[in-house]
Structures are given as C-alpha cells and as structure tokens.
C-alpha cells in the first residue's frame, strides 16, 4: 500500500484529483448508507441538490490529493500553488504575540492549510495541529511522516496533546483544530449545528479563553484542474469570558455554518457529524 501511495504521489495534482472525483462518485453509487447520510446532512443545512451535488466529487478529490500532499518531499514546497486571501489577519495576530487558534472545518483541502501556514509563517511562529492517531500502524507511520515538516508539529488528542497546544499558544505560536470533528465522549457538549444537535468539542473555546489567543477561521479552497488552492482567512467569533461550554460551542458552530454556506460544494457532507461520541477520552 505504501509503495502504491508513493507512486501516486509522483502523479500531477490534476490527475490525482480527477481520479479522486471518479472514486467519489463510485463511493456514492456503491454505498447506500453513505449516500443517505450525505444527502440528509446537506438537506438539514437547507441546501438544494444543485448546491450540494458537486460535493460528491470534491469528497473524492480530497482523498485523491492526499498522496501528493502527504508524500511531497520538503524540497518541493507548495509555493505558487497556494494563494492567500486576507492573510493580513494572520500577520496582525502573530504581531500581537498572544497566540493564534485556527479553526478549519472539513471543507476544501483542510490538509493544505497547515502546510501552507508552516511554509509561510512557520519560521516565525510554528503551528501545532491536533490529530487523532490512525488505528493501523502503517497508516500512523505514513501520517506522522507526512506531517513532519519544518514549522509544523502535531499534538495527539490526549491530555498531553492539550498541554502541548497550550504551551505553544503561550509562546505566541499557532494551533489548528477541526471544530466540526466529533470528539470522544466527555470532551464535548451537545450544541446545534444547522439546527440539529451535534456533539461538539469544547477544546477550541477553552484554548482561547485560557490563553487569550486570537481566533481565526481558515479553509483551503480547492481550485479546478489541479491549479492549486486558495487559503481564505476570516475573523473568528467573539467568545464572551462568561460563556458556558454549551454557549461557546453554539457560537463556534454558527460560525462554521456561515463559513460552510459560502462554498457548500466543498464541504464533506458525508462526514458522520451527528453520530454519538465514541467512548474514551482524555
């Protein structure tokens, strides 16, 4: 499997994304459960089929581009394949030296946002991203190697990982989270997401409230025909100091909804967002 991924990583990005789009439609056609969940999640958001239909192919493109992103050697930077929009917000936050929390939903190419940040700002202020270790040993080794890049560190979803992220913020560095990822039982609260209760992490709000870090939203728009990506940055929502975990989670979810509805064709509607949390946490 690793050899196959290594070979795929040498293919042009447009080809990998094209193959991924085909795989996305095959998954849609061959998996009734995935198809029902995908459509149901999009309809909860009030979307017509015309608006969410392209997301089927984009879900496949997300998988197809991973070998190129994960196994691209450090000597081959993203460079001109990434363009930034509103990057002045990042520079202002780093200048304040209070730490920076990036919230990136399952939208577009969320893998590229951390790599792009590390290439551009990592020497000044490295970024630490939270991750859940893969279950299979070969996949863990692959993911760990892919994220071992200059200016980019990883923190496991454990108490030690949380402490690592807090230290990074207090040193004026950046951290990255997927706020629409379902956390383990005991590490989240139920909060509305497109009007339906969804188990939502409390970590994002806790990090901001404990450290005073700047909160920004970011996502990596995938351009057509392998032309690269656009990292779009928006200010994060205000989190009152006296907000409860439930109210803070609701505020963050509303911000995610607004961001997702800007480009619903690139959101991962097939993600099991409304599932029950798994047992076992920090």
User: What is the name of the CATH class?
Assistant: Alpha Beta
Please report the number of helical segments: 12
Distance between the termini: 32 Å
CATH names the topology as Glycerol-3-phosphate (1)-acyltransferase
> How many discrete structural domains?
1
Proper CATH architecture: 3-Layer(aba) Sandwich
Over the alpha carbons, how many angstroms does the gyration radius reach? 18 Å
As a percent range, the share of helical residues equals 40-55%
* H/E element sequence: HHHHHHEHEHEHEHEEEHEEH
Strand fraction band? Answer: 15-25%
- The rough form would be described as globular
Structural class: alpha/beta
Largest sheet, in brief, is: 7 strands, mixed
Strand ordering within the main sheet: 1-9-8-2-5-3-4
The overall pLDDT average reads: 92
Q: What is the strand tally?
A: 9
Low-confidence stretches: none
Quaternary structure of the protein: single chain
């Amino acid at each position: 499997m690793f050899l196959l991924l290594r070979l795929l990583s040498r293919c042009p990005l447009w080809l990998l994304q094209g193959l991924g789009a085909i795989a996305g439609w095959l998954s849609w056609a061959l998996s009734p459960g995935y198809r029902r969940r995908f459509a149901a999640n999009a309809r909860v958001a009030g979307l017509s089929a015309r608006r969410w239909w392209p997301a089927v192919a984009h879900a496949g493109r997300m998988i197809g581009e991973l070998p190129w992103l994960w196994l691209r050697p450090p000597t081959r930077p993203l460079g001109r394949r990434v363009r930034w929009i509103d990057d002045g917000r990042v520079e202002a936050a780093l200048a304040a030296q209070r730490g920076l929390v990036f919230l990136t939903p399952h939208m577009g190419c969320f893998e590229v946002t951390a790599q792009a940040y590390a290439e551009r700002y990592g020497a000044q202020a490295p970024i630490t991203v939270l991750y859940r270790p893969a279950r299979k040993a070969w996949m863990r080794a692959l993911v760990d190697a892919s994220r071992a890049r200059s200016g980019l560190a990883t923190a496991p979803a454990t108490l030690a990982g949380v402490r690592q992220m807090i230290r990074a913020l207090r040193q004026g560095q950046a951290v990255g989270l997927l706020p629409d990822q379902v956390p383990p039982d005991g590490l989240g609260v139920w909060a509305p997401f497109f009007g339906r209760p969804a188990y939502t992490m409390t970590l994002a709000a806790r990090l901001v409230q404990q450290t005073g870090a700047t909160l920004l939203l970011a996502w990596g728009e995938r351009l057509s025909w392998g032309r690269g990506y656009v990292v779009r940055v928006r200010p994060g929502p205000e989190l009152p100091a006296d907000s409860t975990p439930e109210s803070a989670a609701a505020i963050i979810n509303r911000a995610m909804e607004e961001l997702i509805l800007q480009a619903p064709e690139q959101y991962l509607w097939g993600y099991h967002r409304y599932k029950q949390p798994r047992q076992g946490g920090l």
